Amino acid sequence: MEARRRIESGEQIGARIFNSGPFFGNARNVCPAARTYRDSCEHWPADMTDQQIRDRVDDWALRGIRGVKVQQASPHELLIVIDQHLILSGQVEPGTYLKRIYD
For 76, which DSSP code? Predict the structure, then answer.
C-alpha cells in the first residue's frame, strides 16, 4: 500500500495499483466443500445478515482495498457488495447473476 501511496502522490512512477481483499463468498480455495452459494462454511456462513456483509466489506475498505473478489455469492449478497462502491471481480455462475441483478 505504500507503493500505491507514492505512485498516487507522484513521488514514484508506476502503474495504478488496485489491490483487493480476500474472496467474498464460498470461494473453493477457502471453502473446499462448498459447491454453490447455498452452501455454508466458516469463512462465509450461509446465514450472514446484510449488515454483516456490509461490515465485512467496510472493514476491508478501511484497510485500503480498492476492490473485492467474489466467488459463489448469492445474487442478493452480490448486490450488497456492489452497493459498497468498490471494484468488483470474481467468478459467478455464467449468465445468471448479473442477469438476475439487472432484470
Answer: H
Question: CA 9, CA 21: separation in Å to the nearest integer?
Answer: 22
Phi, psi angle pair for 20, to nearest 5°: -130, 165
H/E/C letters for each residue in the chain?
Answer: CHHHHHHHHCCCCCCCCCCEEEEECCCCCCCCCCCCCCCCCCCCCCCCCHHHHHHHHHHHHHCCCCEEEEECCCHHHHHHHHCCCCEEEEECCCCCHHHHHHC
pLDDT digits (tens, 9 = 90+) for 24-74: 776 666 667 766 777 767 777 778 899 998 998 888 888 888 788 877 777
pLDDT for 100 equals 47
Nearest to 88, CA basis, from 45, 96, 80, 3: 80
Q: Measured in whole angstroms, how far is the alpha carbon of residue 4 from the centre of its chain? A: 20
CA–CA separation, 5 and 16 (whole Å): 10
